[in-house]
Q: What sequence folds into this?
């Protein structure tokens, strides 16, 4: 371990360390000279106070009081930033808009399905490709946005915009978003409960689904695999309505619950249509079949075909409707989150002010 | 445990908030104090000492950038000169600095009087 012979040498070493962290310029040398002069004056004063030459420990104490070289350099040097405090909120807003509200949905609803189609329906490969594309896309977009804002910061373009802005160009006041009313929640809950009860009773009382045709028709074997998932989904919807009613202050919940319910229904429908043999060319599993004692009765076969076609059309229609609803609900939920976070930010700012 | 954690964090946050607000409060006052002290020519260390003796401690990392800024704004003039066999940079108020200081002191008196009144009413 090297030890300084002259305690003052520590000051030179300290100044050298501070100089390392300062940008090279003439001003840097002046700052270092001034700091050195200040420290030497402190040493002199200390020596005058103790009436002897200062030692290493005492010099160290002075330097410690002054601060670590990097910290001192950061205080002494010019204040530098890539994006300044004026532009930073706008930068953050643009970054969030592009990454969260544009790129993420694009990858989720366009790139993902395209990758899935090109991977021949292999979910693992499609997800891996989509995630890889998403990562590089997000990274590139963030880098480009940061670069653009760094250029704007240097060129001071926003300062000009600030001078030129016209209050009449401000957007009109936004309408207060209507919250889910308690009446709607009660209706959801009541009808949800009836629906669930009906679903639970259907296996025992086929009359509830087929009416007078209960003696002629019976549910197809396909429903045996999907009955309990459907019951579970219905129960979840009832629970969703109950939570929305019990916790009206969770204003995020109805939108979030709706989105989850749509996603789960979509998955269930997809499996149901696959199992029925739609589009796969495999053996067709009807949704409804004739009662065992009427298997060969030709007049009923036509009726059965019409009923199955109607159910199939209904399910495909529901699938298409939900495919349209899912991105809309996602957008609504993300807009809600964006508004909520900007609202919280405004409240925090007001509190600070 | 949670309460202790919350309290510790709450106390830390309060201290940080206080330090930030104190820094803001001091910033303008320091400028005024430095300009006032530099009616008489001084170099960095003696200026720091004079301010500390009057109860306004200021560290090197704050003082020297402040002096540089005030000089670049034309409120101070500086000169490197040898004293006691060492080169030192001496600062004093410029003509413009004197005028601005007069205005700032008047403003300070006005703010001080207003604040005094507000505190009395509170």
A:
């Amino acid at each position: 371990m090297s030890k300084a012979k002259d305690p003052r040498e520590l000051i030179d070493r300290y100044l050298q360390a501070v100089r390392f962290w300062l940008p090279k310029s003439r001003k840097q040398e002046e700052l270092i000279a001034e700091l050195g002069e200040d420290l030497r004056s402190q040493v002199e004063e200390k020596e005058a106070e103790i009436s002897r030459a200062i030692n290493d420990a005492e010099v160290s104490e002075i330097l410690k009081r002054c601060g670590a070289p990097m910290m001192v350099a950061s205080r002494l040097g010019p204040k530098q930033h890539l994006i300044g405090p004026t532009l930073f909120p706008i930068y953050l807003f643009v970054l969030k808009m592009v990454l969260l509200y544009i790129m993420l949905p694009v990858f989720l609803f366009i790139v993902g399905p395209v990758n899935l189609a090109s991977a021949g329906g292999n979910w693992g490969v499609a997800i891996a490709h989509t995630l890889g594309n998403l990562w590089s896309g997000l990274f590139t977009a963030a880098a480009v946005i940061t670069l653009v804002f760094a250029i704007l910061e240097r060129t001071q373009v926003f300062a000009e915009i600030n001078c030129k802005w016209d209050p009449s160009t401000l957007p009109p006041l936004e309408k207060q978003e209507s919250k889910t009313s308690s009446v709607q929640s009660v209706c959801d809950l009541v009808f949800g409960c009836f629906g669930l009860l009906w679903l639970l009773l259907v296996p025992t009382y086929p009359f509830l689904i087929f009416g007078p045709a209960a003696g002629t028709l019976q549910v197809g074997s396909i429903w045996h695999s999907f009955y309990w998932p459907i019951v579970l989904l219905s129960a979840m919807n009832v629970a969703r309505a109950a939570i929305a009613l019990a916790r009206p202050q969770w204003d995020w919940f109805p939108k979030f619950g709706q989105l989850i319910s749509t996603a789960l229904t979509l998955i269930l429908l997809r499996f149901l249509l696959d199992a029925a043999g739609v589009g796969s060319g495999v053996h067709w599993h009807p949704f409804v079949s004739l009662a065992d004692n009427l298997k060969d009765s030709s007049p009923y076969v036509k009726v059965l075909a019409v009923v199955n076609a109607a159910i199939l059309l209904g399910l495909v229609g529901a699938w298409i409707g939900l495919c349209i609803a899912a991105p809309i609900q996602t957008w609504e939920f993300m807009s809600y989150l964006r508004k909520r976070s900007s609202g919280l930010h405004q409240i925090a700012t007001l509190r600070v002010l | 445990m949670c309460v202790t954690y919350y309290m510790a964090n709450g106390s830390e946050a309060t201290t940080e908030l206080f330090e930030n607000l104190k820094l803001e409060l001091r910033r303008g006052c320091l400028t005024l104090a430095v300009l006032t002290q530099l009616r008489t020519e001084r170099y960095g260390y003696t200026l720091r000492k004079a301010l500390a003796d009057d109860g306004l401690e200021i560290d090197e990392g704050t003082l020297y950038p402040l002096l540089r800024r005030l000089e670049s704004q034309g409120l101070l003039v500086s000169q490197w000169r040898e004293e006691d066999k060492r080169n030192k940079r001496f600062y004093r108020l410029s003509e413009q600095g004197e005028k601005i200081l007069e205005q700032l002191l008047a403003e300070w008196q006005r703010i001080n009087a207003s604040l005094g009144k507000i505190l009395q009413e509170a």
In short: DSSP finds twelve helices and two strands in chain A.
